[in-house]
Amino acid sequence: MATTSDWLTAAERELWSRESFSFIPDRRLPDPDGTPEIGAGPRVVFAGFPSDYSLALLLALLHLDVEPVGIVTSPGAHPAILGTNALSQIADHLGVPLLRDWRINDEHARQDIADLRPALGVIASFDQILGARTLAIPVHGWLNIHPSALPAYRGPEPIYWTIADGATEAGITLHRAVPKFDAGPIVAQRRLVPAPDETAGTLTRRLCRLGADALGEAVAAMLADDPGVVPDLAAGSYRPSVGHRHLLAATSAAEAERMVRAGVPNMPAWTEVEGHPIFVTRARVVGDCGAAAGLRYPDGCLQLLDTAVACGCHHDDPHCPHRERPD
Question: Domains plus CATH for the chain?
Answer without folding.
Answer: 6-235 (3.40.50.170), 247-308 (no CATH)
